[in-house]
Amino acid sequence: MKHSQMTIYNFKNESEFKLWTMNSLRHEFLFDYELHEDKRKAGIADVSYGANGINGWIEFKFEKHAHFETAQPGWLKRRSETGGHVYVIVGFSNRSCFLVDCKLCEKYYFPIIDQSLGTIAKLLTRPYPWHHDQLLSRHLVPPQLLSRDHPGLPSFLSVLDRISP
Fold it and tell me: Nearest 5°: phi and psi at 14?
């Protein structure tokens, strides 16, 4: 889908970022999703989704509030070990985000613009095992970018490094 002009978004919190992402994926790429804000189920990810024959889970975080509840790393690990599509998406107020594949422990960086949605949709619906293609490889995050541009992010993401299979 071609867009004639770039739309820039300014999110104030995780909820705004999560709803924009999922509603955009629903509208543009026919994702079906459900929010899971169940306080009785410790650790469950924020969103379950289905699209293009793939079902998965996404845990959303936003900027300074990017920390895991006690049970979340274990839940993410168990779900990804069973072959599930499990991702963490961390949004930032500088209009960027990181998408982390919990199964492969790969980290991707995107500007938060409409034009990034197609690549994000492709990542969320790729079958395992899979091979890198040029479009996705462009977005892989070099470790030095994590430290330089987002000083607190490496320690947050190191939790995912420890739980990944």
Answer: -60, -40
